[in-house]
Amino acid sequence: MADTKSMGVVGSGQMGSGIAQLGAVHGIDVWLIDSDPDALARASKSISSSIQRLVSKAQLSQAAGTSALGRLRFTTNLEELCSADVIIEAIVESEDVKKKLFLELDKIAKRSAILASNTSSISITRLASVTSRPRQVIGMHFMNPPPIMKLVEIVRGADTSDETFNVTKALAERFGKTVICSQDYSGFIVNRILMPMINEAFFTLFTGIATKEDIDTGMKLGTNHPMGPLQLADFIGLDVCLSIMKVLHAGLGDSKYAPCPLLVQYVDAGRLGRKRGIGVYDYSKPSPRL
Ligand code: NAI
Question: In this prediction, does ipTM exceed 0.85?
Protein backbone atom coordinates (compact mmCIF):
# COMPACT_ATOMS: atom_id res chain seq x y z
CA MET A 1 0.00 0.00 0.00
CA ALA A 2 1.49 3.34 -1.10
CA ASP A 3 2.31 5.89 1.59
CA THR A 4 0.72 9.33 1.03
CA LYS A 5 3.50 11.83 0.27
CA SER A 6 1.56 14.70 -1.26
CA MET A 7 -1.95 15.90 -0.67
CA GLY A 8 -4.29 18.48 -2.16
CA VAL A 9 -7.07 20.11 -0.18
CA VAL A 10 -9.73 22.02 -2.09
CA GLY A 11 -11.68 24.60 -0.05
CA SER A 12 -9.75 26.57 2.56
CA GLY A 13 -12.60 27.38 4.96
CA GLN A 14 -13.04 26.09 8.51
CA MET A 15 -12.55 22.45 7.51
CA GLY A 16 -10.10 22.62 4.60
CA SER A 17 -7.61 24.78 6.50
CA GLY A 18 -7.65 22.35 9.45
CA ILE A 19 -7.21 19.31 7.18
CA ALA A 20 -4.31 21.01 5.37
CA GLN A 21 -2.68 21.74 8.73
CA LEU A 22 -2.99 18.08 9.75
CA GLY A 23 -1.29 16.96 6.54
CA ALA A 24 1.59 19.42 6.89
CA VAL A 25 2.17 18.63 10.58
CA HIS A 26 2.30 14.91 9.71
CA GLY A 27 5.02 15.29 7.07
CA ILE A 28 2.92 15.52 3.89
CA ASP A 29 3.44 18.17 1.18
CA VAL A 30 0.13 20.01 0.88
CA TRP A 31 -1.40 22.29 -1.73
CA LEU A 32 -4.37 24.21 -0.29
CA ILE A 33 -6.71 25.51 -3.00
CA ASP A 34 -9.61 27.94 -2.89
CA SER A 35 -11.43 29.87 -5.60
CA ASP A 36 -11.40 32.89 -3.26
CA PRO A 37 -7.93 34.43 -2.67
CA ASP A 38 -9.19 36.15 0.51
CA ALA A 39 -10.17 32.74 1.93
CA LEU A 40 -6.63 31.50 1.22
CA ALA A 41 -5.14 34.52 3.01
CA ARG A 42 -7.39 33.87 6.03
CA ALA A 43 -6.45 30.16 5.98
CA SER A 44 -2.73 30.93 5.86
CA LYS A 45 -3.09 33.24 8.87
CA SER A 46 -5.21 30.81 10.88
CA ILE A 47 -2.90 27.82 10.19
CA SER A 48 0.16 29.87 11.19
CA SER A 49 -1.40 30.93 14.47
CA SER A 50 -2.72 27.42 15.15
CA ILE A 51 0.77 25.92 14.62
CA GLN A 52 2.27 28.68 16.77
CA ARG A 53 -0.19 27.75 19.53
CA LEU A 54 0.92 24.09 19.33
CA VAL A 55 4.56 25.24 19.62
CA SER A 56 3.84 27.51 22.60
CA LYS A 57 2.03 24.63 24.37
CA ALA A 58 5.06 22.39 23.64
CA GLN A 59 2.88 20.01 21.60
CA LEU A 60 5.15 20.62 18.60
CA SER A 61 8.81 21.69 18.51
CA GLN A 62 9.69 25.03 16.89
CA ALA A 63 11.61 23.13 14.17
CA ALA A 64 8.66 20.82 13.44
CA GLY A 65 6.32 23.83 13.30
CA THR A 66 8.61 25.64 10.86
CA SER A 67 8.90 22.50 8.67
CA ALA A 68 5.12 22.05 8.68
CA LEU A 69 4.60 25.62 7.49
CA GLY A 70 7.26 25.02 4.80
CA ARG A 71 5.28 22.03 3.46
CA LEU A 72 2.16 24.14 2.82
CA ARG A 73 1.48 25.95 -0.43
CA PHE A 74 -1.58 28.08 -1.26
CA THR A 75 -3.09 28.71 -4.69
CA THR A 76 -6.29 29.33 -6.64
CA ASN A 77 -4.97 27.12 -9.48
CA LEU A 78 -6.47 23.62 -9.43
CA GLU A 79 -3.87 22.38 -11.95
CA GLU A 80 -1.26 22.35 -9.15
CA LEU A 81 -2.95 19.14 -7.93
CA CYS A 82 -1.66 17.11 -10.90
CA SER A 83 0.88 15.18 -8.80
CA ALA A 84 -1.05 14.81 -5.49
CA ASP A 85 -1.50 11.25 -4.14
CA VAL A 86 -4.73 12.13 -2.32
CA ILE A 87 -7.05 15.09 -2.93
CA ILE A 88 -9.55 16.01 -0.22
CA GLU A 89 -12.45 18.21 -1.23
CA ALA A 90 -13.85 20.55 1.45
CA ILE A 91 -15.88 23.11 -0.51
CA VAL A 92 -19.48 24.24 -0.05
CA GLU A 93 -22.04 21.50 0.83
CA SER A 94 -23.81 21.47 -2.55
CA GLU A 95 -24.05 18.36 -4.70
CA ASP A 96 -24.01 20.28 -7.99
CA VAL A 97 -20.96 22.35 -7.04
CA LYS A 98 -19.10 19.30 -5.71
CA LYS A 99 -19.90 17.26 -8.85
CA LYS A 100 -18.52 20.03 -11.05
CA LEU A 101 -15.32 20.01 -9.01
CA PHE A 102 -14.99 16.19 -9.08
CA LEU A 103 -15.35 16.28 -12.85
CA GLU A 104 -12.46 18.77 -13.06
CA LEU A 105 -10.34 16.93 -10.47
CA ASP A 106 -10.76 13.68 -12.39
CA LYS A 107 -9.19 15.33 -15.45
CA ILE A 108 -6.34 16.99 -13.53
CA ALA A 109 -5.36 14.34 -10.97
CA LYS A 110 -2.83 11.62 -11.80
CA ARG A 111 -4.35 8.22 -12.63
CA SER A 112 -3.49 6.65 -9.25
CA ALA A 113 -4.79 9.55 -7.13
CA ILE A 114 -7.59 9.09 -4.61
CA LEU A 115 -10.38 11.69 -4.65
CA ALA A 116 -11.88 12.08 -1.18
CA SER A 117 -14.74 14.28 -0.04
CA ASN A 118 -15.18 15.80 3.40
CA THR A 119 -18.91 16.07 2.71
CA SER A 120 -21.17 15.94 5.76
CA SER A 121 -24.04 14.21 4.01
CA ILE A 122 -23.89 14.07 0.20
CA SER A 123 -23.77 10.71 -1.59
CA ILE A 124 -20.23 9.55 -2.35
CA THR A 125 -21.61 7.19 -5.01
CA ARG A 126 -23.14 10.13 -6.89
CA LEU A 127 -19.95 12.23 -6.62
CA ALA A 128 -17.99 9.21 -7.88
CA SER A 129 -20.38 8.74 -10.80
CA VAL A 130 -19.12 11.88 -12.58
CA THR A 131 -15.52 10.59 -12.52
CA SER A 132 -13.77 7.87 -14.52
CA ARG A 133 -12.39 6.37 -11.26
CA PRO A 134 -15.31 5.47 -8.94
CA ARG A 135 -13.13 2.83 -7.24
CA GLN A 136 -10.84 5.66 -6.07
CA VAL A 137 -13.54 7.97 -4.67
CA ILE A 138 -14.32 7.92 -0.95
CA GLY A 139 -15.79 9.99 1.88
CA MET A 140 -13.27 11.21 4.46
CA HIS A 141 -15.42 13.12 6.92
CA PHE A 142 -13.41 15.04 9.50
CA MET A 143 -15.06 16.65 12.51
CA ASN A 144 -14.76 20.35 13.35
CA PRO A 145 -12.07 21.48 14.14
CA PRO A 146 -10.04 18.80 12.28
CA PRO A 147 -6.76 19.24 14.20
CA ILE A 148 -8.54 18.68 17.52
CA MET A 149 -11.42 16.27 16.99
CA LYS A 150 -10.40 12.63 17.23
CA LEU A 151 -12.81 11.09 14.72
CA VAL A 152 -12.79 10.52 10.97
CA GLU A 153 -15.88 8.91 9.47
CA ILE A 154 -14.96 7.04 6.30
CA VAL A 155 -17.75 6.53 3.79
CA ARG A 156 -17.53 3.89 1.11
CA GLY A 157 -19.38 4.58 -2.13
CA ALA A 158 -20.95 1.71 -4.06
CA ASP A 159 -17.70 1.10 -5.99
CA THR A 160 -14.99 2.24 -3.55
CA SER A 161 -12.17 -0.33 -3.60
CA ASP A 162 -10.56 -1.96 -0.57
CA GLU A 163 -7.23 -0.39 -1.60
CA THR A 164 -8.79 3.11 -1.54
CA PHE A 165 -10.36 2.39 1.84
CA ASN A 166 -7.06 1.10 3.27
CA VAL A 167 -5.00 4.10 2.05
CA THR A 168 -7.62 6.53 3.42
CA LYS A 169 -7.82 4.72 6.77
CA ALA A 170 -4.01 4.70 7.04
CA LEU A 171 -3.95 8.44 6.33
CA ALA A 172 -6.57 9.18 9.03
CA GLU A 173 -4.64 7.01 11.50
CA ARG A 174 -1.39 8.79 10.63
CA PHE A 175 -3.23 11.98 11.70
CA GLY A 176 -3.93 10.28 15.05
CA LYS A 177 -7.65 9.79 14.37
CA THR A 178 -10.00 6.97 15.25
CA VAL A 179 -11.84 5.73 12.17
CA ILE A 180 -15.46 4.66 11.87
CA CYS A 181 -16.88 3.32 8.64
CA SER A 182 -20.31 4.11 7.20
CA GLN A 183 -22.26 2.88 4.21
CA ASP A 184 -23.24 5.59 1.75
CA TYR A 185 -26.68 6.75 2.95
CA SER A 186 -27.76 10.35 3.58
CA GLY A 187 -26.01 11.86 6.60
CA PHE A 188 -23.88 8.73 7.19
CA ILE A 189 -23.61 7.98 10.94
CA VAL A 190 -22.79 11.20 12.80
CA ASN A 191 -24.97 13.72 11.00
CA ARG A 192 -27.88 11.32 10.60
CA ILE A 193 -28.13 11.42 14.40
CA LEU A 194 -26.77 14.90 15.20
CA MET A 195 -28.61 17.09 12.68
CA PRO A 196 -32.17 16.03 13.55
CA MET A 197 -31.30 16.92 17.17
CA ILE A 198 -30.04 20.37 16.13
CA ASN A 199 -33.12 20.85 13.91
CA GLU A 200 -35.35 19.87 16.84
CA ALA A 201 -33.56 22.45 19.01
CA PHE A 202 -34.50 25.07 16.38
CA PHE A 203 -38.14 23.88 16.48
CA THR A 204 -38.08 24.13 20.29
CA LEU A 205 -36.93 27.75 19.96
CA PHE A 206 -39.24 28.50 16.99
CA THR A 207 -42.37 27.28 18.79
CA GLY A 208 -41.55 29.35 21.89
CA ILE A 209 -41.10 26.39 24.22
CA ALA A 210 -37.90 27.81 25.71
CA THR A 211 -35.20 30.44 25.31
CA LYS A 212 -32.02 29.62 23.38
CA GLU A 213 -30.05 29.76 26.61
CA ASP A 214 -32.35 27.28 28.37
CA ILE A 215 -32.32 24.90 25.38
CA ASP A 216 -28.52 24.88 25.36
CA THR A 217 -28.17 24.67 29.14
CA GLY A 218 -30.74 21.87 29.20
CA MET A 219 -28.80 19.75 26.74
CA LYS A 220 -25.40 20.57 28.27
CA LEU A 221 -26.26 19.83 31.87
CA GLY A 222 -29.10 17.39 31.20
CA THR A 223 -27.27 15.12 28.78
CA ASN A 224 -23.64 15.99 29.47
CA HIS A 225 -22.95 17.43 26.00
CA PRO A 226 -19.96 19.80 25.99
CA MET A 227 -21.92 22.35 23.94
CA GLY A 228 -25.66 23.02 23.56
CA PRO A 229 -27.22 22.17 20.14
CA LEU A 230 -27.78 25.81 19.15
CA GLN A 231 -24.23 26.76 20.13
CA LEU A 232 -22.99 23.76 18.15
CA ALA A 233 -25.07 24.82 15.14
CA ASP A 234 -23.40 28.26 15.25
CA PHE A 235 -20.02 26.55 15.46
CA ILE A 236 -20.70 24.24 12.49
CA GLY A 237 -22.30 27.02 10.40
CA LEU A 238 -26.07 27.36 9.96
CA ASP A 239 -25.71 27.13 6.16
CA VAL A 240 -23.94 23.77 6.55
CA CYS A 241 -26.66 22.54 8.98
CA LEU A 242 -29.42 23.60 6.58
CA SER A 243 -27.73 21.90 3.61
CA ILE A 244 -27.41 18.67 5.59
CA MET A 245 -31.08 18.76 6.68
CA LYS A 246 -32.10 19.22 3.03
CA VAL A 247 -30.00 16.18 2.05
CA LEU A 248 -31.56 14.09 4.87
CA HIS A 249 -35.08 15.25 3.91
CA ALA A 250 -34.59 14.51 0.20
CA GLY A 251 -32.62 11.31 0.69
CA LEU A 252 -34.63 9.65 3.47
CA GLY A 253 -38.03 10.94 2.30
CA ASP A 254 -39.58 11.50 5.72
CA SER A 255 -41.21 14.79 6.80
CA LYS A 256 -39.50 14.47 10.18
CA TYR A 257 -36.33 15.72 8.47
CA ALA A 258 -37.92 18.94 7.11
CA PRO A 259 -35.65 21.87 8.05
CA CYS A 260 -37.10 24.16 10.73
CA PRO A 261 -38.36 27.44 9.19
CA LEU A 262 -36.32 29.41 11.75
CA LEU A 263 -33.10 27.74 10.57
CA VAL A 264 -34.06 28.60 6.98
CA GLN A 265 -34.80 32.20 7.94
CA TYR A 266 -31.49 32.68 9.77
CA VAL A 267 -29.59 31.42 6.73
CA ASP A 268 -31.66 33.71 4.44
CA ALA A 269 -30.69 36.61 6.70
CA GLY A 270 -26.97 35.74 6.46
CA ARG A 271 -26.87 34.71 10.13
CA LEU A 272 -24.52 31.79 9.44
CA GLY A 273 -23.03 31.41 12.93
CA ARG A 274 -19.61 32.14 14.37
CA LYS A 275 -17.91 32.47 10.99
CA ARG A 276 -20.14 35.53 10.28
CA GLY A 277 -20.15 36.87 13.84
CA ILE A 278 -23.89 36.19 14.22
CA GLY A 279 -26.11 33.13 14.12
CA VAL A 280 -28.43 32.04 16.93
CA TYR A 281 -26.11 34.10 19.17
CA ASP A 282 -24.50 37.47 18.50
CA TYR A 283 -20.72 37.11 18.81
CA SER A 284 -20.08 40.84 18.63
CA LYS A 285 -21.35 40.93 22.24
CA PRO A 286 -19.56 39.35 25.22
CA SER A 287 -19.84 35.54 24.92
CA PRO A 288 -23.15 34.07 26.12
CA ARG A 289 -22.98 32.59 29.61
CA LEU A 290 -24.40 29.11 29.20
P1 NAI B 1 -16.63 27.09 4.66
O2 NAI B 1 -17.77 27.89 4.15
O3 NAI B 1 -15.92 27.52 5.90
O4 NAI B 1 -15.49 26.92 3.50
C5 NAI B 1 -15.78 26.52 2.18
C6 NAI B 1 -14.67 27.09 1.28
O7 NAI B 1 -14.79 26.51 -0.01
C8 NAI B 1 -14.75 28.61 1.11
O9 NAI B 1 -13.49 29.18 1.43
C10 NAI B 1 -15.07 28.78 -0.39
O11 NAI B 1 -14.45 29.93 -0.96
C12 NAI B 1 -14.50 27.51 -0.98
N13 NAI B 1 -15.10 27.10 -2.25
C14 NAI B 1 -16.42 27.05 -2.56
N15 NAI B 1 -16.57 26.55 -3.82
C16 NAI B 1 -15.32 26.29 -4.29
C17 NAI B 1 -14.81 25.75 -5.51
N18 NAI B 1 -15.63 25.37 -6.50
N19 NAI B 1 -13.47 25.61 -5.66
C20 NAI B 1 -12.62 25.98 -4.67
N21 NAI B 1 -13.06 26.50 -3.48
C22 NAI B 1 -14.38 26.63 -3.30
O23 NAI B 1 -17.19 25.59 4.82
P24 NAI B 1 -16.73 24.43 5.84
O25 NAI B 1 -17.47 24.57 7.10
O26 NAI B 1 -15.25 24.37 5.84
O27 NAI B 1 -17.33 23.14 5.11
C28 NAI B 1 -16.71 22.60 3.95
C29 NAI B 1 -17.21 21.18 3.75
O30 NAI B 1 -16.92 20.40 4.93
C31 NAI B 1 -18.71 21.03 3.50
O32 NAI B 1 -18.93 19.97 2.61
C33 NAI B 1 -19.24 20.68 4.89
O34 NAI B 1 -20.46 19.99 4.84
C35 NAI B 1 -18.11 19.81 5.42
N36 NAI B 1 -18.02 19.73 6.87
C37 NAI B 1 -18.24 20.84 7.65
C38 NAI B 1 -18.16 20.75 9.03
C39 NAI B 1 -18.40 21.94 9.90
O40 NAI B 1 -18.52 21.79 11.13
N41 NAI B 1 -18.46 23.16 9.35
C42 NAI B 1 -17.82 19.48 9.70
C43 NAI B 1 -17.52 18.40 8.78
C44 NAI B 1 -17.65 18.53 7.43
Answer: yes
Digit-coded pLDDT (tens) for 25-55 = 999 999 999 999 999 999 999 999 999 999 9
Is 34 part of any known ligand binding site?
Answer: yes
The predicted model scores a pTM of 0.93
Whether ligand 1 lies within 6 angstroms of the CB of 199 is answered as no
Distance in Å, CA 10 to ligand 1 centroid: 9
Residue whose CA lies nearest to ligand 1 atom number 31: 93
Give yes or no on whether 6-183 and 192-276 have one common fold.
no
Q: What integer is the mean pLDDT of 118-128?
A: 96
The CA 214 to ligand 1 mean position distance, Å, reads 30
User: Could you state, in order of their start, the residue ranges of all structural domains in the chain?
Assistant: 6-183, 192-276
Q: Which CATH superfamily is domain 6-183 in?
A: NAD(P)-binding Rossmann-like Domain (3.40.50.720)
Which residues, at least 6 apart from 203, have a Cβ–Cβ distance to it below 8 Å? 260, 262
For residue 93, say whether it is annotated as part of any ligand binding site: yes
CATH number of the 192-276 domain: 1.10.1040.10
